[in-house]
């Protein structure tokens, strides 16, 4: 077990609280999508996703989510996790790899922790949504190799290897004995974090602490204002 520093508790869940989850590492990338499919499926004017390795998200609620499959305009099927009681959409399977999922940022307990690294399908953005100055945008979808940090691309490779190993193991288990060689090989597969991943976590932790401080300051200002009103 690697002795990496504890990752800050980034948690999220559905509206009614039945389905809860915790992120075990910093997301790989965060993007907002302004496409027509996201308008419909989110019921809002854009969707915001934090992409993360599927095996780095832990379910901590009293019930796992249910899944609904939708087929996008381009024919790609998406499996969307939602709460069986209140219907809140929580995440969908990643577009680029079966080893990742796209968390819906609004389902995080502190959504402001994530800010989109990129806004895609900018051509169908509604006019009154004004993006921050300097925000990265693209027409249509995007290629991860053009926008993801190198450390995230490396983590994606590692996640794919783990995914393939798990697939191999479950196939071996299903077909019974006689797969000893494969299992021994799988045991040796390194899954420890690379130094880059740790750096990424630390960077995220820094960003998290800055946000927390800003929130704290905002709260203090608000209570000062309230006190002043009471005195007046
Ligand atoms: Zn719920
Ligand atoms: Zn979209």
UniProtKB/TrEMBL annotation:
PROSITE patterns (alphabetical): CENP_V_GFA
InterPro entries xrefs: CENP-V/GFA, Mss4-like_sf
Segments forming domain CENP-V/GFA: 10-127
GO molecular function annotation: carbon-sulfur lyase activity; metal ion binding
Keyword rRNA processing tagged: no
Keywords: Lyase, Metal-binding, Zinc
Signal peptide: none
UniProt xrefs under Gene3D superfamilies: glutathione-dependent formaldehyde- activating enzyme (gfa)
Family assignment from sequence similarity: Belongs to the Gfa family.
Protein known as: CENP-V/GFA domain-containing protein
């Amino acid at each position: 077990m690697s002795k990496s520093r504890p990752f800050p508790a980034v948690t999220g869940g559905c509206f009614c609280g039945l389905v809860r989850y915790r992120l075990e590492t910093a997301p790989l990338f965060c993007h907002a999508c302004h496409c027509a499919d996201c308008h419909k499926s989110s019921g809002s004017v854009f969707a915001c996703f934090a992409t993360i390795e599927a095996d780095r998200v832990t379910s901590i609620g009293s019930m796992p989510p249910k899944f609904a499959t939708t087929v996008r305009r381009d024919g790609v099927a998406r499996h969307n996790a939602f709460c069986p009681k209140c219907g809140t959409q929580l995440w969908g399977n990643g577009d680029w790899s079966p080893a990742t999922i796209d968390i819906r940022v609004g389902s995080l307990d502190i959504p402001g922790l994530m800010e989109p690294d990129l806004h895609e399908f900018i051509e169908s953005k509604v006019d009154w949504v004004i993006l921050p100055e300097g925000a990265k945008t693209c027409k249509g979808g995007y290629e991860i190799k053009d926008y993801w940090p190198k450390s995230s691309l490396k983590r994606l490779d590692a996640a794919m290897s783990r995914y393939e190993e798990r697939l191999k193991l479950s196939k071996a288990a299903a077909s019974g004995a006689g797969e000893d060689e494969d299992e021994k090989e799988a045991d040796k597969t390194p899954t420890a974090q690379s130094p880059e991943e740790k750096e990424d976590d630390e960077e995220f932790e820094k960003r998290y602490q800055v946000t927390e401080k800003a929130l704290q300051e905002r709260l203090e200002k608000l209570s000062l204002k309230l006190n002043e009103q009471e005195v007046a």
